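Question thread 4412

I'm putting together a teaching handout and wanted feedback from people who do this every day. The idea is simple: show students a protein as raw sequence, then show them the structure tokens that encode its fold, then repeat with a second protein so they can compare. Below is the first pair exactly as I plan to print it.
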Amino acid sequence: MSDLTTAFSTALRTRRLVAIVRGTDPEASFRTVMTLVESGVPLVEVSLSGADALGVLRRARAELGDGAWLGAGTVLTADDARRAADAGANLIVTPGLGAGVAEAVRRELPVAAGVLTPTDVIAASTSGATALKIFPASAMGGPAYLKALRAPFPDVPFVPVGGVDAAAAEEYLALGAVAVGVGSPLVGDAADGGDLDALRKRAAQFTAVAGAARAAGAAGAAR
């Protein structure tokens, strides 16, 4: 495990929240990334399916510096992973298992690899992935599905993604998810040019949920 991968694993378990930005307006997407970080959400993923995502990544990296966690999401191919890394991404996120995962591992970049079934989990566990993204979590039953998966895989670092609102985030974290990935319930329309003040309010709500989970985990460990 590389130093960067170890650092990401620690950050994921500490912060418990990854924001997912997918916008139709590159300028708004950039402002959304910056607002999230300023609002206490330091783990941010920019989906490659958004408008000029690589440009957003480059601008955000230049503004935030080398130490910030800045991910590229919806990485499907090895070329996607290469272009994302060249644009400044130091985290790769995929919707499933494929060449993007292998390329990220080859580059010693942290990767949250998409899984859905137990077969996926077994395959991903040998892929070198840092965390396993359950996607789309809500379509499979939400927190109940995480609970079912954790029965045979109690030590796997799961990150549920898809339809995660604040209430679901609280439940996922209580059930043992290392973190949650949150898109529209957190970002809303900000990346399309929407209200950044509303984004700040939603960020405060989600960081409070993550903070409560962090505190509960620390209390449990101290017992």
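The second pair follows. I'd like the answer to focus on this one:
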Amino acid sequence: MTQEDGELDSLVRKRIRALRVAQGWSLEELAGRANLSQSSLSRIENGRRRLALDQLVTLARALDTTLDQLVENAADDVVVSPMIDATHGLMRWPVKGDPGMSVMRQRMTDPPPDNPARMRAHPGREWLVVLSGTAVLMLGHRRFRVETNQAAEFPTMLPHAIGAEGGPCEILGIFDRDARRGHQKDAGADGTEADCEGTGSPFTSGPPAERGPGSGR
């Protein structure tokens, strides 16, 4: 066994115990759920029994996780730098655990469009939190003020638009796979977000955000 294999073996055993404790289960309870004897489970957690694939599959199922997550090794790329679209004032981070999900940050200065025809709808869900300032979320026929440190989550099949109120605001948004695809329809030929003025979609509505020197946004 190589040093790397030994580290992974130890990590998996610690993970099994940590997940069990997090559920508030005793050795006896998890053993029963995984069709193992209590002594076998104890030896697995303590490193006195070889890890068998069939047992790991059963334990993963009993712990409400997957085999891949149970044996996932510690990643070296824990810190991720954003992809910056300076033209539209966007910063985007991919979510490693779910390649279909994206996190975006944008500074907005303009209010949302008044014309409902400029609002946009597409499959998916979006979640956003206001980092600073006050945002206005237009959702169907309703208008929501979202203050600093408040969040909003909504289905994007409702026509929606977002903008600033009373001055600039900064927003951090999370897009699921379907919502991200909806935004990608407006992507330019170079793969960056197109200028979607008139679409009313969060993070793409209105003109490019203002950026101060060295802001990176």
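Top answer:
Good format. For the second protein you could add a caption like this: The chain has six helices and nine strands. The radius of gyration is 23 Å.
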